[in-house]
Amino acid sequence: MGLYKRRNKGEEQPSMLGALKLRLPFIHYKIEIPDWIQGAILSVVPMSVTAIMMDVLGIPFEIAIAFVILNNFLYLLHTHFGDPAIAGWITAGIPLYVGFLSSFPEGEERILALIALQLTLAFIFLLMGIFKGADTLVKRLPMSLKAGILLGAGFAAVFGEFAPDGRVWSMPITILLGSAFAFFMMFSNTAAPLRKKYRFFRYVAQFGIAIPFALAYIFGIIIGEVNTPEISWTLVALPINEIISNYSIFAVGIPGMSYFIKALPLAVAAYIIAFGDVLVMNSLLGQADKVRTDEKLTFNPGRNSILSSIRNFILGIFMPFLPLAGPQWTAGQVLVLNRYMNNDRSVVDSYWGGATGIYWGMSIALLLGPLVTLFQPGINIGMSLTLLIQGYLCGYLALEMLSKKTNLERGIAVIVGAVLATQGAAWGLGIGILLWLLLEKQWVKSDIIN
User: Fold this and answer.
1) End-to-end CA, the chain
2) pLDDT range class, residue 1, cuts 50, 70, 90
3) Stated pTM of the model
4) CB burial string 212-226: b at 16+ within 10 A, e below
5) Which of 10, 31, 99, 101 is least surrounded, with the fewest CB atoms within 10 Å of its CB?
6) Backbone angles phi, psi at 386, to 5 degrees
7) For 251-303, how does the pLDDT look when each residue is reduced to its tens digit (9 = 90+)?
């Protein structure tokens, strides 16, 4: 149990350093072992992005997994400094980032492009955090453009996986069966009542793609689509000197202005996608506050934006990270909140124990060589499951946003999404703005015509 406890019902968990709200384990909250275990189980999820980083950036697995581990530890900035977010990637935009980077020659130029994208996004997060401009930007942006960006991200995710050189065809039976099981457990009308009635189905569903990945991986090894892993019984090395010497701005230099200009439309699109996660997080934490009245959870979007900015600046300077640094990992957020809300204070004393525990468990698990090498041959499965599910989520969220809109707005959104998925963010946003000005913007008042 922490040394400092909440004395009165409905108070925030104690912290130190005033407005910084620093909270440390054993001092301000106790260790929540179940959340550490859940984080360790879910370590297969961040491993999956190494497949894309190796393909797009041309880096070896040893460097890619080091990027993932170091990025994972940066997530802890949020929960250690007063932000209740279970931070994550800006996942929905990954296919868009891949398309953007693929327009540059492989090698140093792609690294420079990624640095420019990450630093531009960091600057946007910083501005929005300091000047509280997030609401203004997203509320004033036409719904047709917002939905179009989500549609484009969804299209790009699915197109990329089923392209002639897509991951699906590298191990079709394994990936398609794993995807079918993941979609069934997470979204089907049949599984929903099973989750309500049976604890086993609830347990499987709460881990997202982790269990479908594990089953597909085992099946893939059995049928010969996946190589048998070669287990290493050492700790995973973190070659920080090599990373800084080859991939940081100290090695490749600061990108020229042309890189930043090309990255700006995609950085804006990534921020708009990320702000959707902020809205979801605000709603989830509000629900938790109503259920657990013994503790007050305070979510400040400005703090979240500034911490997301700091992560993107650190990554952009020292180790540009392809999925970028976003405000929330929704699946992890739900996982921690479900355990917190479904137990009283005698079982889960404070939200902060679980919120920090999930990433401590995951990050430490990723340092274990036996675990990493066990799942290394299956990283394409994990990435394909992630992107196919992301495509599904982006698609239905975009359609839900347009459910009460006009056919004009729906049509613009489809065009924006298609152009964005095939030609990139600059073309998508440019075409969207042009169509909004030509079609949706009412330049002449109807009473003048009458």
Assistant:
1) 73
2) very low
3) 0.86
4) bbbbbbebbbeeebb
5) 10
6) -60, -50
7) 999 999 999 999 999 999 899 888 877 877 887 888 888 888 899 998 888 89
As a residue count, the chain comes to 450
Look at residue 2 and tell me whether its pLDDT is greater than 60: no
Could you give the CA distance from residue 363 to residue 163 in angstroms, rounded to a whole number?
Answer: 33
Ramachandran angles phi, psi of 368, nearest 5°: -90, 110
With CA atoms as reference, report the closest residue to 391 among 412, 409, 417.
Answer: 417
**Structure-token match 């203004």, residue found:** 136
Question: CA nearest 401: which of 417, 389, 387?
Answer: 417
What pLDDT does residue 64 have? 95
How far, in Å, are 84, 284, 310 from residue 321 at the CA level?
23, 27, 13
The three state secondary structure string of the chain is: CCCCCCCCCCECCCCECHHHCECCECCCECCCHHHHHHHHHCCHHHHCCHHHHHHHHCCCHHHHHHHHHHHHHHCHHHHHECCCCCCECCHHHHHHHHHHHHCCCCCHHHHHHHHHHHHHHHHHHHHHHHHCCHHHHHHHCCHHHHHHHHHHHHHHHHHHHHCCCCHHHHCHHHHHHHHHHHHHHHHCCCHHHHHHHCHHHHHHHCCCCHHHHHHHHHHHHHHCCCCCCCCCCCECCCCHHHHHHHHCHHHHCCCCHHHHHHHHHHHHHHHHHHHHHHHHHHHHHHHHHHHCCCECCCCCHHHHHHHHHHHHHHHHHHCCCCCCCECCCHHHHHHHHHHHHCCCCCCCCCHHHHHHHHHHHHHHHCCEHHHHHHHHHHHHHHHHHHHHHHHHHHHHHHHHHCCCCCHHHHHHHHHHHHHHHHHCHHHHHHHHHHHHHHHHCCCCCHHHHC
Position 78 pLDDT exceeds 60: yes
Confidence of residue 102 (pLDDT cuts 50, 70, 90): very high
Residue 343, both tokens: 């137990």
Q: Give every CB contact of residue 207 below 8 A, 6+ residues apart in sequence.
A: 38, 41, 42, 335
Packing angle, helices 379-401 and 50-57, rounded to 10: 100
Check if the beta carbon of residue 328 is closer than 8 Å to that of residue 85: yes
Q: Which residue has the tokens 């997060």?
A: 125
Task: Return the C-alpha torsion angle 199, 204, 205, 209, nearest 10.
Answer: 180
pLDDT in tens, 230-241: 999 999 999 999
